[in-house]
Amino acid sequence: MTRSNRDLTAEISRLNRLIARIEAKPQNEWGVWSSTLHDLVEERDVLGLVVLNRRIEASKKVVSFRRWRDGPWTG
Q1: Most CB atoms within 10 A, among 6, 7, 26, 67?
Q2: What's the pTM value of the predicted model, to 2 decimals?
Q3: Residue 63 phi/psi, 5° resolution?
Q4: Could you tell me if 19 and 44 are in contact, meaning their C-beta atoms sit under 8 angstroms apart?
Q5: DSSP letter (8 states) at residue 3
Q6: How many Å from the N-terminal Cα to the C-terminal Cα in the chain?
Q7: Helix, coil or strand: residue 47
Q8: How far apart are CA 27 and CA 37, in angstroms?
Q9: CB of 7 closer than 8 Å to CB of 47
Q10: Cα 7 to Cα 32: distance, rounded to the nearest angstrom
Q11: Which one, of 21, 62, 57, lies nearest residue 40 by Cα?
Q12: How many CA atoms, within 13 angstroms, populate the side-chain half-sphere of residue 19?
């Protein structure tokens, strides 16, 4: 199922809040949270790229729905 840009943007916002909560933890707890933080940042970045790609594809005169949905890396 393809999620809408609104859904992806909401998920990015949720991830930003989680990342901020982890980053606000005392420094002596960062070791426990580092892998989770890394995963959340990576997921946020990937979703951001999907939204950016969709905006780029949508600005073109001829839109490839497959490229809009899946990104240029799908071949």
Answers
A1: 67
A2: 0.76
A3: -105, 130
A4: yes
A5: P
A6: 19
A7: helix
A8: 13
A9: no
A10: 30
A11: 21
A12: 15
The position carrying tokens 């729905």 is 65
Report CA-CA distances (Å) from 65 to 6, 10, 21. Answer: 17, 22, 36
Cα separation, 30 vs 44, in Å, equals 19
Which amino acid would we find at residue 37? Answer: L
**Residue type for position 3:** R
Whole-number Å distance between alpha carbons of 30 and 55: 35
Location of structure tokens 């809408």: 4
User: Tens of pLDDT along 19-70?
Assistant: 999 999 998 998 899 999 999 999 999 999 999 988 887 787 776 777 767 7
In this structure, what token pair is assigned to residue 13?
Answer: 């916002």
SS3 44: helix
